[in-house]
Design brief:
By secondary structure, the chain is α+β, with helices and mostly antiparallel strands. The protein has a single domain, classed as Signal recognition particle, SRP19-like subunit (Phenylalanyl-tRNA Synthetase, Chain B, domain 1), CATH 3.30.56. 34% of the residues lie in helices and 12% in strands. The protein has 3 helices and 3 strands; from the N terminus they run αβαββα. The protein has a 3-stranded antiparallel β-sheet with strand order 1-3-2, covered by helices on one side. Helix 2 crosses helix 3.
Length: 110
């Protein structure tokens, strides 16, 4: 946790805001296991979602995303997947599920 906060502080991000949450692409990745960081069921997950698609899904749900592209998830520090900080409506789990459903809808359109 301390190491993560140090990384975020180097990026100029204050993680102590209670009205913001961090969403990593791995949360929605169907190619990852729950142990590897996926937070949604496989039926709601998308294979290897990109930051720009997740950003669009977050915007479609009415939240304000802020992209940090050069960050690495603590479970895979060699992969610079980035993350998105967004406003919080409801719990973090509710927000993750809302974004996952929107990602599914966007994928079905293409």
């Amino acid at each position: 946790m301390i190491k993560t906060l140090e990384i975020h502080n180097k990026l100029g991000i204050n993680m102590r805001k209670r009205d913001k949450i961090v969403l990593w692409p791995v949360y929605f990745d169907s190619t990852k296991t729950r142990l590897e960081g996926r937070k949604v069921p496989k039926r709601l997950a998308t294979p290897a979602p990109k930051l720009d698609v997740i950003q669009k899904a977050i915007e479609q749900t009415g939240l304000q995303p802020e992209v940090v592209p050069s960050a690495a998830h603590p479970n895979a520090p060699w992969q610079k997947t980035g993350f998105i900080i967004t406003t919080k409506k409801g719990s973090k789990t509710q927000t993750i599920y809302r974004v996952a459903k929107e990602l599914q809808r966007l994928r079905a359109q293409t």
